# Entry
Amino acid sequence: MTAARPAGTALPGNRWDLLDGRWPADSPAVSVIVAHYRQPDQLTRTLAALENQDHPRDRLQIIVADDGSPESPEVPPGVDVVRQDDDGFRLAAVRNLGARAAHGDVLVFLDADTTPEPGFVRALTRLPALAPDCVTVGRRRHAELADVAGDRIADDAPSHALPEPRWLAAAYERSGNLLDADDRSYRHVIGAVVACSRTMFDATGGFDESFTRYGGEDWEWAYRAWLRGAVLAHVPDAVAWHDGPDAAARDATTLARANDETIRLADLIPVPGSAGRGLRSASVDVAVVPPPGATPGQRFISLDSALAGIPGAAAAALERGREPGRPGGLDGPGFDRVRLIVELLVPLRVTGDDLHAGLERVERERLGSLTLRSEAGAELVRITAARAQARAERWGRGDLFETAAAAAPGILPLIGEPDLAAYLGGWG
# Structure
């Protein structure tokens, strides 16, 4: 059965700017999920701020998702509470728990120690309400909030402000608030101030509950959202105030914790710049699909010569009955985070750098696909971005990313049965 297409606008590429100046005709149904653990004073302030939002209260569900506090959090009438046992730090799991209780079309994730200004929900949910592929991240500012009331946050927090992370502000400025997002922009999605549609959240499968230490679960989720066709956008007008300094500003011991997070992410996010340079990630970055109808010898040379020039690549089987959540219907462990799919369309041998250059071009130009052809015009290889494929499947249309073709004289079709020993020995 073909899945129903989502309601809203399908955007090309990462062009959320095409919706500038537009607002939903009706305020969307929003569920705000507030992750909490033993923070009663901070939670009280954040819930007061949520009651003070300019988004209609009858279109706003507030859920406190409690990660096993000794006592159930006290909340005002009309606020839902869901709880899980205290089995250690399980932020990813408790966010998923909150999402399962949500009935809004747009989900907002907050932390109990991050208090939103009155316009936060309205500003952050505008894009996901208009275009369900959008994942928006607000502006998380920092302040000492002990003496600040939730319904006074916009007026009083600035006088208690602490420095903002310069690396994050610089990234937003450099990318035009993520308009020029790329495969590494997941680093700029902060889970304490993020929103997405129910459609996009379900497409990701939720947060990875194997994260049981502080940090990283938001970046890993954002990367999978990107691969599933998310449009990333930073919304600087959606301001929420974190109680206390940025983690990097606290003490030197955070470096060891950051290293633990980086090692964990290197295994789960295989894109260059995140994965190790020599240590192989358990996840595959580039999947190479063998040519149909090839003999064993042709298949060996096709895959071997293609894989030789692609770091982080692995051979993949292509299952036509596609499993939800797996790009391109790729089968086997480690293929759920594939970024690029290289289909070898005919038996071939890669002798030059055309394939590597093609991969770089798809990334550089944000292409949906690139077809490499022989000098005679025969199609040899198709490189497809997994995120473009996911977007095309969700909307039933293939025009949301640009496509291109290029000649590849260094990729040679194999005619007949090759001499495999000569190929391996270097004399043929």
Q: What stands out?
A: Residues 320-326 have pLDDT under 50 and may be disordered.
